[in-house]
Design brief:
By secondary structure, the chain is mostly helical. The chain contains twelve helices and no strands. The protein starts with a helix and ends with a helix.
Length: 261
Amino acid sequence: MLKHVVESQLPQYKQFVRVYDSATGKPDRDGDVIEIDKSLAGVFGFRLIPIKPENALEFAINDFNSSVRNSRKEFTGGKEGVIRPNKSPEEVIERFFVANRALYNANVVMKNKINSAKTLGMSEDEIGKTFIDRGRKKNLQFIEANTFKPFFPSKDIRKALIEVEQKTGQDFYSTAEPTILRMLEDFKTQNLNEPWNFKLEDYLPRPEPQSRVPLPEQPQPNPALVQQTPPPVTQTGLTPTEQALLSEEERMTALRNRGMV
């Protein structure tokens, strides 16, 4: 009777009993010994839910797949995509850079998710099987080696770019391709444990400095045209104009200046 009253007045009574049984190693009705941490959780109203890292890793791989697709679209799709007319080589280089930087970020996030799965108890084999089931075995190999596998446009994408060039007469991709190949080799050296090591301006063409070219030799003036022929002087020592326009006093001044008076 007393036990019934206690049970009705104290809803947590049975939980405390379970804690006591756990501490003393007494099995329950099913013959199992309940772990004391689970018993304490029940006392305080918590429900322990088992963590399934394999499920979390599957969701992470789905997010990774989406991020990989979106990184490629940085190069091919949207208003800024390069498979369209009136694009410049500089724009092709810029979109290739942006696409690979986005892909690098996606790989770093996936690497952190893999490390979390290991911390939660997933083995190498379990992680490998999860990636194989999702068709991402090669990606796992690169990530585990801390190696970045850059994006490069596929054969079909390059074909589409060449077709745009042929229709428009604009060789924007062909001009940019040597730089893109150099970027590809550089990006292969990126380690997933290190920050992104590259700058866009290192790949964009630099404007040529304005050279100071001397002007071509200019024609010289004709000396015959430049040299002025002095006006003729009459027997009076004055020119016809001076003779006609000057007063007598001015005429004498002119003669004195010439040393003729």
